[in-house]
User: What shape does this take?
Amino acid sequence: MGENNFLLVLDDMWAEESHGKFEDLRSCLLGICKNSRNRVIVTTRDEKVALKMRMHHEHMHHLGKLQDADCWSIIRNRVFGETSIPPELENIGWDIAQLYGGVPLVASVVGGTLCIEKLDRAEWLSFKSKIEALGPLEHDNGIMRVIKLSFDHLPKSALKQCFAFYSIFPKDFVMEREMLIQLWMAQGFLQSTEKSPITMEDIGNKYFSDLLSYSLFQKEEIYRSGIIDIGCKIHDLIHDFAQIISKSETVIWTTLSLSNISNVRNLNLIYGGETMPTNFRDVAPKLHSLFLKNNFSSDMQVDLKSLRVLSFVDAIHIEDLPPCFDKMKSLRYLDISRTRLTELPKFITKLYNLQTFRFMTCRSLKMPPEGIGSLINLRHIYFSNEEQMPANIAKFLCRHNKGMQN
Assistant: This one.
């Protein structure tokens, strides 16, 4: 950067341990540019994090709470938009706004819930009573109670399952809408009858929109190769709540060993070691979802017979799929994108329950084995190299009337 000035914003720092990485970044920046006019802004909910990063008290700015009018403005816009407000609801809305404690997240979540509720005075009074019963909302525990209230108002158990599943991703992770819907579909959350004109994808899009409306999801735009796609992420506190309601069934595994594995069904293995965690074999037979970037030995024998979702995205050390994978008869979603796989084993053509198959940017991968077209439940296929186009792809497209991406 030389003599140029810069303003660096580190938004939403939430772990005290982050200060070590910040010190590395600080040393790097000082080595590149020592201009005294440069500035770094850190935002955090925890003052301890700011102090760890050498922020002096005189340089700290503590954000105040929203005024009641601002809280009511949030809920009014969420529920009514530009339309007029029934007078009998406006007074109740003002009363509810005064219970928010000036927290924008609470106002947004409550507004999202009321947006779905009937515009009925009795319904609003009932909801107001529930907010009052929660007690003070000034701290994280109080906010979590409001999130739970919104979650309890979700109209379908499948919608609650879709929300809870998001806890398998790290905080601040942005997920593509289409991919998330396909993961929900693989888990069996999107049920559609055979004679119904409404597809599982239609149901998934409806659930995605509902979770945005409830403010449990935050809409994100994803830019890729000149195309704008819709995605989402969730607030840190909402992520904490999603982990709580998953009841240890959904786990992000970051250490060499995990103490309580009896309930684990969905596992995101981001442990950075070169070998698999010590008790992975014990949890494997019960898994429904596995997201993995570690080195999975090609001769490893592990029971994954219950697996429905398997993702190796960015697992650059994986060059072969173990033979034991041929037992994954329940697999519905397979993503090997951006790996170094050179060849797909023949048993891929026997995964008859497979619905989604992704192998984007697999530069070393040869043509998929013949027989991919015989996967009768395959609905979505993604590849980036035209030379990797599976044989009989026309039969696949005709059968499900689904597009392919390359």
